[in-house]
Design brief:
- The structure holds two protein chains of two kinds.
- By secondary structure, chain A is mainly alpha-helical.
- Chain A contains 15 helices and two strands.
- Chain A has a two-stranded antiparallel ribbon with strand order 1-2.
- In chain A, helix 2 crosses helix 12 and helix 7 crosses helix 9.
- By secondary structure, chain B is mainly alpha-helical.
- Chain B has a single domain, classed as ABC transporter involved in vitamin B12 uptake, BtuC, CATH 1.10.3470.
- Chain B is built from eleven helices and two strands; from the N terminus they run H-H-H-H-E-E-H-H-H-H-H-H-H.
- In chain B, helix 2 runs parallel beside helix 4 and helix 5 packs antiparallel against helix 8.
- The chains are: A mainly alpha, B mainly alpha.
- At the A-B interface, helix 5, helix 12 and helix 14 of A face helix 4, helix 9 and helix 11 of B.
Chain lengths: 315, 291
């Protein structure tokens, strides 16, 4: 399937899904689905750098929060509408990714991983000390009174927007995966030195994939302040975003765009269930345990099982 | 703002005392990350675990937390050996340490933190010691005992590790692993065994450092991740795999943090280590004593 057809189909499916599910009477569905979709975007974005290129980003929460706080900033400064926040948050997060990548991607991959973690903490402290966006107390973002398309509540809109953005993230991830660029990234992942020697412009490709990955993470965060119409640093920078965006691609499978989608939908739904029925601490423990179990025992994730099964059937 | 000498002297002393403690936290990372090339980002989780064990025993029986940590350090040693075994068989042997190995340690860090939250909650815990509230005063300069005691024990530990690595046969084998594993194999030594014991040693130092932490400040499970940047910053700043460099890096960081919290406010102090780390990575990745 060519990229254009895939894009058209995915976006169309997302729009239809967004329209049809509006009929669901249960309000809880929308907030649960919003969270799962948020993880779909984060996992897909993480996988562009982690799965395709082989560089671990521990700072997902930082880029997510950059998106969220760009929205808050624009809202405080100009009462900017959501659409402006989405575009600006995506761009700012992409620029932050570019900066981090430019500084650390020349070194071994480990240093990028540690620096991404460091960035999350520096930004957290920065936001806590920045009163304009609420500081440690947090900030309120009022949901607009009029909601387009005659939707009953704002969460319905946020959910639909998130659904379309998730589709967009999948389209971008698949386009990168299937392009020459994606092959360059795979070459870096498998043997960076060999790739460099064969004329792959490794640094350029790495910086590009970091930028794309971080921009999408920022995009996931832009709607977040509107979700509860309140945001505070420790929820925006929560470590659970970092863990989930690593665990989901690892559990789903990192080699294709489908892996993070499967991982995010599965793990995201399980977490929503556990959070309601047991508690949120247990739900985080489950994510951690699943991450360690999969990474030690099934390194290729669920898609790895599917591939193995296909190969066996083909023989 | 007028800077008084007393304020300056206090900031220097506090920074040096804090630096000694940072050296104890980071010496394990210098061994595992600097020498063995095992990127153990779960190191701070073991520090926090050490804090909680010291807390439990201190709370029940009133024993001194530092003594407790020295007594239980063999357990941490065994834990470290087991952890390295899993790491080796699942990742290092298959050449997957760069991505999956990192994710593995991240998972371990996260599980430890959440498990501690489930058992102890998110309340800050502290220990009671005889020296906890004592402060020596030399002129206008304060020497709080809750910093001095961990500083002294930590110096003994770091110097002990350095002597062990340079003076004993086994310690030299660890240094040899850091330099050239293949050569070691050709000499008939199994590098995996050496790495296992060295990694175990690094986890044991983390457990002891945990008891220093809870003597110095109240501890709750989530503070571990703030130290990830700190220990790596010290290790990278000093130069990878050099214990002397780690000591220097720790003092530099301790002083920088102490000055930041004295002159800009304590809420900025945690950003110092990460800022220093980013700056070191960007401008001098080989560190102060790096080759």
């Amino acid at each position: 399937m060519s990229n254009k057809i895939f894009a058209a189909v995915t976006i169309a499916v997302a729009l239809v899904l967004a329209a049809v599910t509006q009929l669901i009477p249960n309000e809880y569905f929308f907030s649960a689905a919003y969270t799962v979709l948020l993880f779909v975007i984060l996992a897909t974005a993480w996988n562009i750098l982690g799965g395709y290129t082989g560089y671990v980003n521990f700072g997902s929460a930082a880029f997510f929060a950059i998106g969220a706080y760009t929205t808050v900033f624009l809202y405080n400064a100009f009462k900017a509408p959501l659409a402006v926040g989405i575009v600006a948050g995506t761009l700012v997060a992409g620029l932050a990714g570019l900066g981090l990548g430019y500084l650390t991607l020349r070194l071994r991959g480990v240093f990028f991983a540690i620096a991404s973690l460091a960035l999350a903490v520096v930004l957290y402290i920065f936001v806590v000390n920045w009163d304009y966006v609420g500081g440690a107390r947090g900030a309120y973002v009022i949901q607009p009174r009029e909601i387009p398309f005659g939707l009953p509540r704002y969460i319905h809109l946020i959910y639909a927007v998130q659904l379309v953005m998730a589709a967009f993230a999948l389209v971008v991830a698949r386009a990168i995966e299937k392009s020459t660029l994606g092959r360059g990234l795979a070459a870096i992942r498998d043997d960076e030195l060999a790739a460099e020697c064969s004329g792959v412009p490794t640094l350029k490709l790495k910086i590009f994939s970091t930028m794309a990955s971080c921009a999408l993470m920022g995009m996931a965060g832009t709607t977040f302040p509107y979700y509860l119409s309140y945001i505070e640093p420790s929820s925006a920078f929560s470590l659970s975003y970092a863990v989930n965006s690593i665990a989901m691609p690892l559990i789903g499978g990192m080699m294709s765009w489908m892996g993070p989608l499967i991982g995010a939908v599965l793990l995201g739904s399980v977490q929503q269930l556990v959070q309601v029925t047991v508690s949120s601490a247990w739900n985080l423990l489950i994510v951690g345990v699943l991450l360690v179990l999969f990474v030690t025992l099934a390194p290729n994730g669920i898609m790895g099982w599917v591939d193995a099964w296909r190969r066996r059937k083909g023989r | 703002m007028e800077v008084s000498w007393a304020l300056l002297a206090n900031a220097v002393i506090a920074g040096l005392l804090l630096g000694g403690f940072y050296a104890a936290m980071s010496v394990g990372i210098s061994i595992s990350f600097g020498m063995l090339d095992v990127v153990n980002i779960a190191h701070p989780a073991f520090i926090i675990l050490g804090s909680y064990i010291a807390y439990i025993v201190n709370d029940r029986f009133g024993f001194d937390p530092i003594v407790v940590s020295l007594v239980v350090s063999p357990l941490f040693f065994l834990l470290g050996a087991a952890l390295y075994r899993v790491y080796y068989y699942c990742f290092e042997r298959r050449g997957q340490e760069s991505l999956r190995g990192l994710a593995f340690f991240f998972g371990i860090l996260f599980i430890t933190e959440v498990a501690l939250v489930l058992v102890f909650g998110v309340d800050y815990r502290m220990v009671s010691t005889r020296y906890g509230d004592v402060t020596w005063r030399a002129g206008e300069v304060d020497f709080p005992m809750r910093l001095v005691v961990p500083f002294l024990v930590s110096m003994v530990m770091v110097i002990g590790v350095q002597l062990f690595l340079t003076r004993t046969f086994f310690g030299r084998a660890v240094l040899a692993v850091a330099q050239d594993q293949l050569a070691l194999r050709l000499m008939g030594v199994n590098p995996v065994r050496v790495k296992e014991l060295a990694f175990a040693l690094s986890i044991a130092t983390a457990g002891v450092a945990g008891s220093f932490l809870i003597v110095i400040q109240p501890v709750q499970p989530a503070i571990g991740r703030e130290f990830i940047g700190l220990v790596f910053a010290v290790c990278v700043l000093g130069g990878m795999g050099s214990i002397l460099g780690t000591l220097i890096g720790a003092f530099v960081l301790g002083l920088a943090e102490s000055f930041t919290s004295t002159f800009f406010g304590p809420s900025w102090a945690p950003a110092v280590s990460f800022g220093l780390l980013l700056a070191t990575l960007a401008f001098r990745p080989s560190g102060i004593l790096g080759r």
